[in-house]
Structures are given as C-alpha cells and as structure tokens.
Amino acid sequence: MSAVLDHGGHAHDDHAHDHPHGWRRWVYATNHKDIGTLYLLFSFTMLLIGGVLALGIRAELFQPGLQFVNPELFNQLTTMHGIIMVFGAIMPAFVGMANWMIPLQIGASDMAFARMNNFSFWLMIPAALLLVSSFFMPGGAPAAGWTLYAPLTLQMGPSMDAGIFAMHILGASSIMGSINIVVTILNMRAPGMTLMKMPMFVWTWLITAYLLIAVIPVLAGAITMTLTDRHFGTSFFNPAGGGDPIMYQHIFWFFGHPEVYIMILPAFGIVSQIVPAFARKPLFGYHSMVYATASIAILSFIVWAHHMFATGMPVTGQLFFMYATMLISVPTGVKVFNWVATMWKGSMTFETPMLWAVGFIFVFTMGGFTGLICSMAPIDTQIQDTYYVVAHFHYVLVAGSLYALYAGVYYWAPKWSGVMIPEWKGKIHFWGSLITFNVTFFPMHFLGLAGMPRRYADYPMQFADFNMVASIGAFGFGLMQVFFLFVVLIPMMRGKGEPAPQKPWEGAEGLEWEVPSPAPFHTYETPPKLDATATRVIG
Amino acid sequence: MSTAPMTRPNPIDARDLRRRNLRMGLILASVAATFMVGFMVRIIWFS
To answer: Which of A65, A101, A477, B9 is least surrounded by Cβ atoms within 10 Å, i.e. has the fewest?
Structure first.
C-alpha cells in the first residue's frame, strides 16, 4: 500500500466530517473531484438536451416534405444543437475530466484556484438556462448556425442577445478554467514530475488550455461587436452600414478552428493513456506525441480560412490555407502511428475502455481522411455546406471527442465511483453506439457527394433513402446513450457493482492508481515522493 | 471545502505557492484580456 494511503486515505477516512455534506458540498464545492463530478454531470445533461434537438432534426429529415417542424424551427434546432453540443457538452466534459484527473495525475492536492474553479462551474448553469430558454423567447431560439454568422445575427430577435450573453458567460468560464489548469500544471506538480514525465492527458490539457486562453477572447470580441452592431449603431459586420460580414467569418474561424483542436487534443490525451494500459506496453514515441500535440496547436492558428474557400478569396490565399491544412495531417499521422505502434506486439486485451479507444482511432481516422479531402480547395468548392461536411465533422467530434470521453469514463470510473462497471454493459454501449453512429453518419457522405445541402428542413426525393437510414441510425444512437444513463451511469452512481481495486487495470500506469478507489476526498496533501518514472509513489 | 496545504516540486511554503499561483494566473488573465481588447481596438482603428 502506498504512502499516499497512509497520509491521505487513513487520515480522511477517519475524518469524514472534514468536508461539507448535503447541498452545501456541491454549491460551495472547492474540491477538484466534486467540481469534476459536477462538470461531468452537467455535460452529460447537455449532451442529452443537444441529442433531443438532433433527434428533432433527424425526425424531420426522415422523409422529404415538412412533417414535424417548420423551416424556422429547423434552423433553430440545428443552431442550438451545435452550440449546446460544442459549448455545453464536449468542452465541459473535458474540463470535468481535467478537474478530476490532473491533480491526481501530477500529485497535487487540488487545483491552484479552488474557489475560482467553483465559480467557473456555476457560471455554466445560467448560461445553459439562457440557451435552453431562448426557445421560448419571441421569435424563437437563435437560428444563425452555431457559427453565429452576420448578417443573420443582426436580423434576429431577443434570443440572439441571450445567446450572445450565454456565449460570453461560457467563454469567461472557459478562460478561468484554462488559467486554473495551466497554473495547476506548471506550479503544483509533485517533486520529480518533470514536464517530460507528465502523463499525456496532462500534456494535451496544458496545450489545450493555452489554446483556449488565446482564442476564446477573440470569440468574445467578435460577439461583443455583433452585440454593438445589434444595439449601439455600429456596423462592423452589417453590410447595410458599410460593414463586412466576411470579416466576421475570418474572426470567428480564427477562434473556431483552434476550437476544433480544443475539442480533440484532450481526447488524444485520454486515448494515449488507455492504449498503453491495455497493450501493456509503454506509449510508443512519448516525446513525438508531445511535439505533435504542440505542432497541431500551433498549426491550428494558420488554417482558419479553409472554412471559407467558397467566399471568393484569392487563389494564393486558398493555396496557403489548403497546404497549411494538409500539413496538420503530419502531426496527426504521427499520433495515429504511435498508437498503432504502441499496440504492435502488445499483450492486448479489449476491456470497454480499450474498445472505445480503438474505436476512436479507427473512426476518428476516417473523419481525418474526409477532413483531408475537405481541405483541398477545388473539392471543397463542390462539397462546401453539403452533408459531406456534416459527416466529416461528426466523425471527428462524435467518433473523436465523444468516444474518447466514453473511453475515459469507463477507464477512470472505478477510481471515481469505487465500483467496476460490468463489462457486458460497456460492451453493449460500445458496439451499439459504434454501429448506430456509422448507420447515421456514413450515408451522409453519399448525400453530400450527391449535393444535398446542410440546414434545410426539406429535400428532393432522390435523397430520401439515405436520409431514412441516417434517421434510423440517429434514434438508435440516442437509445444507446439512454442505455448508458439508466444501465451504466445511475447504477454506478448508486455504488452498485463489484468494488473496484486500487488499480483495476493491470497495465495502467500513473499516480491516479496510487490512491484507493474511490479516491479519498483529499489526496496528495503532502508532496508524494515519486520513483524515477514519476508513475509510482515510493514514500 | 479543501483546506489541504498545496504542494509543489521544490520545498516551498503554502503562502509562497499561493503568491506564485496568483502571479501566474494574473499574467494569463491579462494576456486573455489583452487579446480581446487589443483585437477589438485593432479592428476599430485599422479597418
């Protein structure tokens, strides 16, 4: 048993009164584990809300013609689905994982700014309420797309202001969260935990946090200017007053493209933890993984206009952004190569976390390839704003970010809850999700190549079959997430299941496995002494 | 509520660590604020 048990576990198992109970524990939470739990529960709730909106979209598109919603509401559904999933589900879920795991993985007692951590989380609740309640405001919810393009944003009702306010709040929360993560990682590592010994999840989050600090203010600036265009007579983006809507697109995508990597880099980190654990080999090419992550982050700043090839930019501009985008496939390829090389000749087993991780690698890589196709300006001119793009980004965001999140949940849940999730539950969830996901999104490639545009509530007869297949898949995928809620999550939270040992996965390495399961309320109150690899506590 | 003493690599007292954390946090926050305000000022004055 480790020294941590003697210090942390013993002391605090005996003194369970050292933290508040009941609602105060959560409202006044400053403990990184409690705040991590809050973030994860919040993001799963938002995932379900965003999922319901997605099913509204798919129900309408099940057949040609208008069945359930009018085109105005359809646009609101697509817009709010995007905003809620990006800002309410995926990003907070990774922040939740960061809160739970980073202090444990670096041997710190808590996050650097515990009270600000509480504030970061609780800011998200009013923002979420503003977003959801915007459906009931005059004129309905924002319907300008998740990108909030001008001049659409300048023509909308009061819900647009609610949306902008919500985005400001979410942005403030993200910046505070990022500052907390950077300071925690740089200042609070245990002795011996040098930068190049940090777990990959910590590395990817360090780089992601820098990205967030750099680009969230740009989004905040852009939507502030949208607000002044709407209410204070400016014309930054309003062509009626001499403004330039294309400038908004440039500014938005200067934020938006790094945002894509903000949603995928921590996913890379999770997969980089899980693959070595279940291949029972050290991660192949740790250093190159770190440098590839940093390279992706740096390159993400110079590729934004590949989202705008169809806006009529000069050919030289198209060429620059095309080649810069294609360049990103190099560090991404390094990562995929390293994961495969880690598995090569490993003693692999396929418990649920590994299934999600391997599923991630396979399906995310498919999304990466279609991304490469989209990056080529002449092809993009054809497939811009078609379902091909919808298929592409769902392959990288659902099969990428969401799969990695589930991989992380199944991997670390024994440490969080103290119980093992039965394998059969995880396997049903994984295989059900993998099949239904592909049934949903694979046909969209064909729809896009055939020319079906995004964001329309109706379509010609020729697209009917693939849309019907996609809708059936979407409802199946939704069902699998409901399965996760009722069969996996709620029983786990109620403590049902086999008690988890301190290290439930034989090949897992890292300081998080040096504390008991479930992790005590306080861990690493005094700096642990680490072995040479910084993965074991020795005193 | 966490009252645990904070830790860091080098032997250092908790107050000093808080000071270091606060300094780094303020630097990062001012970088973020500069990005937002600087970017808007740039667009207003130079476009």
So the answer is: A65
